[in-house]
Amino acid sequence: MLLAVDAGNTNVVFAVHDGTEWRGRWRIRTDAERTSDEYAVWLLTLLQHSGLKPSDITRCVIGTVVPAALYNLRRLSREWFDCEPLVARAHLDWGFDIRVDAPHEVGADRLLNALAAHHTYGGPLIVIDFGTATTFDVVGRDGAYLGGVIAPGINLSIEALHRAAARLPRIGIGRPQAVVGRNTVAAMQSGIYWGYVGLIEGIVARIRAEQEEYPVGDLKVIATGGLAPLFAEGTTVIETTDQDTTLDGLRLLAARNPAPIFTRTARRDDP
């Protein structure tokens, strides 16, 4: 079985795939100082609850945009599952070209999304990921990663608005009933929700106009991330939502690359 670890800026998602389906998914708040033992106490309990044992895990793959978290995630794999993790990096075999100026600078999550989305939906396409940042990534017909757009995430914008304006409260995100709010909270919710719908539609339209080699209808738009279904309700631009895109990318990457060699005599704290 494969243990896939998707470490983002806000949460770390752990999932187990048995070769046919995902057997479980669990998330914990990202904390770069969380030790491998702390992860283990939490994760092993959840595995047991799902009828799984540490010995069931034969491979581990990690994708992270938080470099400081990698050390203890590696230790978790080595010390508790006896396997050397495959870490998603640009130099691995992705099965496609990374056509940007500095491939090593592209976040692992964006390459993983490109890999999984093209495998499932074909290309060309635009992948929108609603995470700590809202990213738009362009994938060619042949699966090549062509670059993208990074915008502030929805929750980040809400928090910034609350912190910068003394009289504005912290709000939850939801689809408002009307564009014009009749109170402060409704007005803020409208600005955030419809503002991001406008951002989505505007950026997608500009990407489509810039990618002149592809007819407009050829560039499919796939959305992932926790808020993807909510924003898909507000626009016809998003054609499909897929919550497993990044995890599927980890699974596919592990299938394309050999497992790193792990020996018990190796130093467990190697970087």
UniProtKB/TrEMBL annotation:
The keyword Transmembrane helix does not apply. ATP binds at D6, A7, G8, N9, T10, N11, V12, V13, T132. GO terms for molecular function: kinase activity. Substrate binds at G107, A108, D109, R110, T184. It catalyses: (R)-pantothenate + ATP = (R)-4'-phosphopantothenate + ADP + H(+). K(+) binds at D129. Keywords: ATP-binding, Coenzyme A biosynthesis, Cytoplasm, Kinase, Metal-binding, Nucleotide-binding, Potassium, Transferase. It holds the Pfam family Pan_kinase. It is found in: Cytoplasm. InterPro entries: Type_III_PanK. It comes from the Bacteria. Its EC number is 2.7.1.33. A monovalent cation. Ammonium or potassium. Its cofactor is NH4(+); K(+). Coiled coil: none annotated. Pathway: Cofactor biosynthesis; coenzyme A biosynthesis; CoA from (R)-pantothenate: step 1/5. The active site is at D109. CDD domains: ASKHA_NBD_PanK-III. Homodimer. Belongs to the type III pantothenate kinase family. Catalyzes the phosphorylation of pantothenate (Pan), the first step in CoA biosynthesis. PANTHER family: TYPE III PANTOTHENATE KINASE. This is Type III pantothenate kinase. It comes from Falsiroseomonas oleicola. The lineage of its organism: Bacteria, Pseudomonadati, Pseudomonadota, Alphaproteobacteria, Acetobacterales.
